[in-house]
Amino acid sequence: MSVEVLTYIIVGLTFAAYIYIGYLNRVKTTSGFYVAGHGIPPLANGMATAADWMSAASFISMAGLISFLGYNGTFYLMGWTGGYVLLALLLAPYLRKFGKYTVPDFVGDRYYSNTARVVAAICAIFVSLTYVAGQMRGVGIVFSRFLGLPINGGVAVGMAIVAFFAVLGGMKGITWTQVAQYSVLIVAYMIPAVAIAWIVTGIPIPQLALTFSDIVPKLNQLQIDLGLIEYAKPFQGKPMLDVFMITVALMIGTAGLPHIIIRFYTVPSVRAARYSAGWALLFIALLYTTAPAIAVFAKYNLINELNGKTVAQIEELDWATKWEKTGLLKFEDKDGDGVVTLKAKADETEITIDRDIIVLSTPEVAKLSPIVIALVAAGGLAAALSTAAGLLLVISSSISHDIYYRLIKPDATESQRLLVGRGMILVAVLAAGYFGINPPGFVAQVVAFAFGLAAASFFPIIILGIFDKRMNREGAIAGMIVGMVFTMYYIIGNRFFEMDPWFFKVSAEGIGTFGALLNFVVAFVVSRVTPAPPPEIQELVESVRIPRGADHFAGTDYE
Fold this sequence. Notes:
73% helix
């Protein structure tokens, strides 16, 4: 049976399972739609959180980044992992005790301001739309290669599946679907990792194979011989300040992601939130400790398979010709010497490998079973679609709950709120589809932009909202606006208008750190020169930080 047929079968079966799970968990209440009725067990929520957080960037792109950037790629690993620890320790339990539906809910009630709520909702929409663009590119890549569909068609199929279980089941349907998707993606990631570790080193545990074998020195020497010096040296060509800024932006951006924060509202209690954070960290670590091994083994195999071969020899490789059709793998004998070689400079290299194909191509390059190849395709789709679903719900809830219900029509019935919420998911699906077809960068880069926006908008305001009872609405509003506007201006200018990095040469991926610092400073200063929050808000801040007691604060409506 061909790889394509097996992929259709396995992907079809997983999609059918997602749809069935979404149907079983359909909801009729706003509590079920937005926070799964606060009824998700910690273990299941940990799996759902891991699937929600480990997006296409983690499954498809992170190993590719490490593979091509070497040490420069490790700050993605450090930033994302460290950020989750930050979220689990500093934010999750306190936000669960607050007990609302969304991040703008927390901002609006904590800062006793509907204006602050609207600003937070707009920030959530911008962050989520940017993030979902990376997921849809991942969906397009998988469909383009393994199912023979054009990227546009692949994105459309993926979004139709997400729309079904998100519209029908809301957060409850998304959560249980994500439990299944985590199971698929982690099996799909680990099987080829174990297999290629055994093939290359004779050690079946990827982490141990990377540590105790001589594969890293071999790869480094191979790249040095080919002139790829920057891949073998620590942070070559990357200013250390930029490395630091990117790492911090990814950390605090992770802690400020609205679609992850909302996951801790779905469990029954503060205690359950802490346990689910621990489970999620364990599930995340399983993939993240494996990614560097895949990066090294896959790069080593690709160089050995492609470098120094003639075009005719490469075209005899079935997997190479299929990836060439996607445009993500290119080879050309530019100097006419009869062979193609991998070189450091983009205009000189005769082999161009898109970093997003590293994980997806690994089973084929290693000549693993077609079943494993198909399973990896299903895993990549699971990773992308699980995160996309969470992001779509954030966009939907920001409009339907935080703007429509809380501001425009507070007397809306439950059925009206559900109708608007489901309608907004469909609108968000169309927007996500557009960004999937017209992505502003490769998967991990686009995701890094989203993390920068989250770092500059939400993280400072949430931290100050929990730990500084003097922080008021004027400070929060000013901080969010300044941080978000500055970061968006810098990213858009660098990405779309060829603006040179002017802030100490910090890249667009790292500028979120400075945006967050601006947010902190502006919010703190403005709050100190304007009236203090009402006494009941200061009491709220005190009560949220107490481990025991009521699980949530009811909140108050303010102008």
